[in-house]
Amino acid sequence: MSEAHPNQYREKYDLNNCDREPIHILGQVQSYGCLIAVSSDWMVTHASENCADLLNLDTDRLVGSRFIEILPSETVHHLRTRMQVLSYQTAAVRVFAYPAFEDDRLFDISISQSDQNIIFEFEPRVDSVQKVRDGSEVRALIGRVKRHETIDMMAREAARSIKILSGFDRVMAYRFNEDGSGTVIAEAAEPNQETLLGLRFPASDVPKQARKLYVRSPLRIIADVDAKTYAIRPETDPNGKPLDLSLAITRAVSPIHLEYLRNMGVAASMSVSIVRNGKLWGLFACHHRTPRYISYQTRSEIELFSELFNYQLAQHELTSELAEVDRGRTLHDDLMRQLSGGMDMIEAFNILSEAIREVIPFDGAAVYTNGDYEATGSALTKEEFLGLARFLNTVPPGQVYHTNMVSARYPAAEGYVDRVAGILALPISRTPRDYLVLFRREIATSIRWAGNPEKPVELGPNGARLTPRKSFEAWQEVVRGQSAPWRGSEIRAANALRVTLLEVVLKLADERNMMRKKAQDQQELLVAELNHRVKNILNLIRGLVSQGQDGAKSTQEYRSVLDNRIFALARAHDQLTKAEWDWVPLQSLVNTEVEAFLTEKSSRVMIKGENIDLSPTAFSTMALVIHELVTNSAKYGALSESSGSIELDVALQPDGAAKLFWREINGPPVQPPTRRGFGTTIIERSVPYELRGQTDTRYRITGFEADLVLPSAHVRPSEASMVSSQQTAVIEEAEIRLDGHCLVLEDNMIIALDASDMLTELGAENVHIASSVADGLSIISKHDISIALLDVNLGDELSLPVVEKCRELGIPTILATGYGANIDLVARFADVPVLTKPYNWDGLKKVISKVILDN
Fold first, then answer.
1. pTM attached to this predicted model
2. Is residue 251 part of a domain?
């Protein structure tokens, strides 16, 4: 499956145990390409022997020559320019179908860094015409991968895609396991080929050195296992150091690996790395029964596909990890909610075990706390568990302990291996050591090995080496005494669960001790709060008594006014008490006050707009304000005559504040008061002083007006308002339907496409997109535009000529801007609706609704 590396510079080379850096110095290249190494002063330091065949250059004369002496100056200039990007990347720089010698010959060229040398590799172009690729085929194939929801299906689709791109007979997706071995998880092959799907290959098949190299050099091709290879001259530099060919794409491979492929009946191969978080996750292994060469450009496309697949793999695993986090958080919330009734761990064990099973599969579970033991499923007896608990007590505290073969670490477990083979233990206290333990039964795992993994090495013609498998018949290994392994996600979930259980234990331990103190604290708080509120009420009554007497003409009038104000407060507090001192609808306050004070005139007070709730503080303040507004109107304003009425319009603002518009209609002519009484003071100053809001009053001849602004901290939409708003939104959405052609003038393509999609969903027959004034005017001249969405600033020009043309033709227009609606550019068209960026579906729909209604 992989590339093994013999050591030409040491007598022995241990592939399985060597932790040194990979050997990149085979000193030979494959026949499909040649190599020239150039020093920093542009002198050729090394060259492969086949330069004479492929480049018509004498290899013996190359070394020591200046690079510009062997290639045309224009070619050198071009290659040096391309080298500029080497400082920003570790991979090779690519040049495709380039006439390096300014004749009919085309070459694919790779440029890479090797210590102090720049390595140029030349591959003669098989096809004489350069094919221009835009990457659409790769994007289409990766799009097919994205449709799948499991890693195995993604890998299968990716294997099919690479087979299409490369033309190889067989493409396998090979995933590394936690023990270093690898399994073929997906395969795409020509008919009548023996399948390798599901086969497992020992870890020694891909040595540590090779894995490091696969990360650095993600694609390797062997066009012909029997082709001749060519040495690099000289073998070493003046310091005796061989040329590092880590990133050389034409570097020859080990004779051992070639023998390995021949024994599989493979004449050509290619491997493509699958990298996750900088580590080798797996490989795409490609095999062909006859020699096969694919161009460097096609290999680059395959490499691009693999990089995009790596990204999709990372996204999939990240999504899975986030889903695990969400499941863990849900488990935490569920357990905290279900165990909040005061049950201890033994009483809650059934609830606990069923909740955990949703996240971590197990065959049995047990909890041991305060000397009590409870178990379910395939579990241990209490006596067996006490022995296991002593073993668990030797584990460092505060850690989740897990093993899928407990008998290998705790010999006494041999006695119950038929019931329990693996454990996952969560310590849920420090002293004494209490545990929640999950058990798994023994599972006999049949693993299809590609050969016997116990015999990976034997003596061969190349010395101590990895022996290529001469037969790929499945070899069965039956594992006894082991459970299914605990996956990383399950261990992470267990760690999160342990924290949750510690919270539960601490909560249960503290709950009884805190109940008495909590009750005492609540009683003290209740007394203090009652005392505070009574004093506030007394102070308020005192203020009403002392301040209200100034405007009274008689004792009887003073008494009546004071009674009305006190009863208004009483009615407000009745409503607050019924609501348990919670938020109360403004409408109920107004209705209660109007009905209590005006009786038969109550129908003449009309409340419009949105229904809002008031905080307890705001409710008390507004009770006096509404009372004074109503009484003043009944005495001097619209309600003093039979033809008069009052409109109270309520509007929620975008910032969450609420505006109340009090309007008196068809009443007697109004004159500003000659003196300001206490009632006027309440109306004008209560909201600003008590609630930090705003009040604006106007004594117009047509009727008294008051505008009040209540801050967002004291208002919220009531449930009735929210339902009403939803119903209105549905009606409005049903009524908003576009037709015909629309214009979107926008210099940002993504924003333009989003706007186009929105308009199309609203019914537009065709949405024309333009990014310049000229294009916009051209579209207007050719099509009958029903509505235009125009960005004010198009980067290097303004869209004002298009706006003016739309106004001239009577085309309904919407201006989009990131500057806001108050800038001079927008102010020139005050009658044109403005949509502030960034805008969304709701914002666009509302503006379009306004435009349709206005037109």
1. 0.53
2. no
